[in-house]
Amino acid sequence: MKKTICVLTMIAALLCSAVLYAAEPLVIADQGIFSSGGITVTSEGVFDPENHWEETGMGQTAHVDHANVLYQIPADENGLPIVFLHGYGQSRMGWMTTPDGRDGWSDIFLRYGHSVFLIDEPRRGEAGGTSVAGDISTKTLDQRWYTQFRIGRWENGESVVNPGSQFPNDPESVDQFFRQMTPDTGMRSDMGADFDGEMVAKAVAAAIDDVYEMTGKDSVLMTHSQGGRAGWLVAKYTDHIKAIVAVEPGGAPSAGSDEYNAMLADGIDVIMYFGDYIDNGDPAIQATAAWQGMRKTCYDFTESYNADGGNSTVIDLPKIGIYGNDHFIFQDLNNAEVAEHVENWIRTEVQ
After folding, report:
1. Of 163, 237, 242, 287, which is least surrounded by CB within 10 A?
2. pTM (2 decimals)?
3. CA 85 to CA 207: how far, in whole Å?
């Protein structure tokens, strides 16, 4: 009897210790913000300092098309740096928190010992300076993106999530989710049709080179959605990518393309994650077929990349017993569970 009580006491102590550890403050050794890449545009003429309100901008410059990078380095840094690139209509905020206020992936990976470098891509968020004029749309488009992101059906003015959904669906969280949407200062299309992936890729590559200068380490590039489209191109402009973690990228490169060859030549390890409601999505919603098609390009890439000597895998979360995820896997209620899977892959396959 005494032995049983002792064992139970030890288990209770271990559980208590785990809770206390999880609640410990996150200690940051260094943090800051910097800009990477971009161009400088100069107007013709000579600037007149005595007429600085002259309307044409004659002889003046504009520093534009750069990435803005917020970084944090944990006190117990022990892993590869992770560079985060957001998707369409988003900013780095999406990696930093969740609609219901839990830890985002940036904090979770800081606790794992990674330095994090969170990008606002060119013409977005705190990197809003642009060399091309765009339209800041005032259209009411929240429900378009809610549907495209496979959260559920919007009916009678309310969010009706998919069965078993991991989306935090209380009214306040839904409101916070919609308020994360961030306009692009350089796009005229409200569907992202004129997204300049090459321009973004060059700025992200410059950021990764800056990370290498700061840390002496190659980076894991973590992308999401439209950011995945630009993310595949980055290897053409830097040699300092160790691996790419693509969360529901909007497709993958074709075998033999310039970006494919650059990734293969650099030996970049690749893993791609897809959530639920793709195979079992509502066939009446256009997004279902669209995501089936985008995911297929990732399977095709993986088959070719591995055959050519690379290392790529696609993780279809329902197939490994993780259900209920929409497009925003890193913000869902089980985001820590998926982050643990990513971390295990980095530690076993990459480092």
Report:
1. 163
2. 0.92
3. 11
